[in-house]
Design goal:
Blueprint: H1 2-6, H2 21-44, H3 50-55, H4 64-67, H5 71-81, H6 88-94, H7 115-120, H8 126-137, H9 148-152, H10 154-157, H11 161-188
Length: 190
């Protein structure tokens, strides 16, 4: 009974005998709505989750979590979506590097290494990106507009099984290449 009362459903529940299925369903619905409002507020007021808020619209289980069977690829896609990665945009945050100085270290473009840069314009991944885009373009079921903006936003929202699998593979390959580039760069500087 105490648990039911702590849900703060704004309903009178004098005792367990008065607890009906409709009342429980109503309390569950209210609790979900309250949490979703809390979740939305946290997203809208987080400086860290800028990329995530551009791709996440609803509070629901993401298709890719059950679609991608390769755990490494699923992990890399999740890390990119949640900005839980080592791209300079996040690494710089923890090292107190001004945002404008969080430059990509794997290409010569002089751009801030954001998720968007990583997906759409970093020269280091151009051949991987070209293969990925060609693979998507040759897929008759793909409905994603493949311009630069959609690659970093719309494609991340995709629920199409094949697109999500191809995307996770592309992102994983890019992260692997990034690690190798940085290791080689560090070895050369020693």
């Amino acid at each position: 009974m105490d648990i039911v009362k702590t849900l703060n459903c704004n309903r009178a529940i004098p005792d367990l005998d008065s607890l009906t299925t409709n009342l429980v369903e109503s309390c569950v619905k209210d609790t979900k709505e309250n949490y979703q409002r809390f979740w939305r507020h946290k997203l809208e007021n987080s400086s860290k989750l800028t990329f995530y808020t551009s791709i996440k619209e609803d509070y629901e289980l993401e298709t890719y979590l059950t679609t991608i069977t390769n755990s490494n690829q699923r992990k890399h896609l999740t890390q990119l979506r949640l900005s839980n990665h080592k791209l300079m945009i996040e690494l710089g945050r923890y090292k107190n590097i001004p945002r404008e100085d969080r430059i990509c270290k794997v290409c010569q473009a002089g751009e801030i290494e954001t998720e968007h840069h990583f997906l759409t314009s970093c020269e280091a991944y151009s051949s991987l990106r070209e293969n990925f885009l060609n693979d998507l373009e040759s897929d008759p079921t793909n409905e994603t507009d493949l311009n630069e903006h959609s690659l970093s936003v719309e494609i991340m929202k995709s629920t199409d099984k094949e697109t999500v699998i191809k995307l996770s593979k592309f992102i994983s390959l890019c992260f692997e290449k990034r690690s190798k580039c940085l290791e080689a760069r560090n070895a050369d500087s020693q």
